Amino acid sequence: MILGGAGKVSGAGKGLGKVEVRLKWDPSPLGETPRHLDIIAATYSADDPHGRPVYVVHYDSRSPDGTINMSRHSRTGMGFGFVEVMVVELHRLAPVYGRVVVGVAIHQDGTPRTFGDMSNAGVVVVEGYRQLLADDFSQVADATAATVAEFTRNPSGVWGMREMVRGFHSDPVLFTAEMGGSRR
Fold first, then answer.
1. What tens digit of pLDDT does each residue of 156-165 get?
2. Which residues pair with 162 in a beta bridge?
3. Which of 50, 84, 90, 140 sees the fewest Cβ atoms within 10 Å?
4. CA angle 68-43-181, nearest 5°?
5. Distances in Å between the alpha carbon of 6 and those of 46, 65, 107, 147, 148?
6. Which of 117, 137, 105 has its CA nearest to residue 41?
7. How far apart are CA 50 and CA 99, in angstroms?
8. pLDDT digits 0-9 by tens, 54-69
């Protein structure tokens, strides 16, 4: 179930090349089960950009060609800034791919948690030193998963990004199937 909206577009001109999605959150209070968030990317074919993902990348995987991978992963948040990082090398993606959607899901171990239950959660998307997006998930506080950005390739092969903070009431597995669907 989708909860939010979409926003501005970035990457005009020469387009985007190598971007990083960085995620932070504080650890659980003493005595509670660990709070665990994950960055997830779904890659779609140029022929069917809103269909089923061709492949999904998360903490336990990488893209078949190595263009999307996790360079840092955390199961607890640790509270030391951005503790989970996914690298997306758009400029290296084969022309058969036309869209990549990136989101964040909360592991639901025991007590159900939403972004509103997370302390100091945030995500940024950067290309080099340029920040393309920053969000604290407050607009999707009741959600258990959220998309954050959509990267699309235009007909001339240039990649751009659209801010796409939308909340979902899904576990991580269902979220991977829903996250790239058309807006309703």
1. 999 999 999 9
2. 9, 150
3. 50
4. 145
5. 21, 29, 24, 10, 9
6. 105
7. 8
8. 999 987 777 889 899 8
Between 64 and 1, name the one with better pLDDT. 64
Q: Of the candidates 101, 43, 100, 40, which has an alpha carbon nearest to the alpha carbon of residue 73?
A: 40
The C-alpha angle 68, 135, 41, rounded to 5 degrees, equals: 20
What are the pLDDT digits (tens) for 108-146?
Answer: 877 789 999 998 899 999 999 999 999 999 999 999 999
Q: Which helix (H) or strand (E) holds 70?
A: strand 68-72
In this structure, are residues 160 and 151 in contact, taking their beta carbons and an 8 Å threshold? Answer: yes
CB 103 within 8 A of CB 37: no
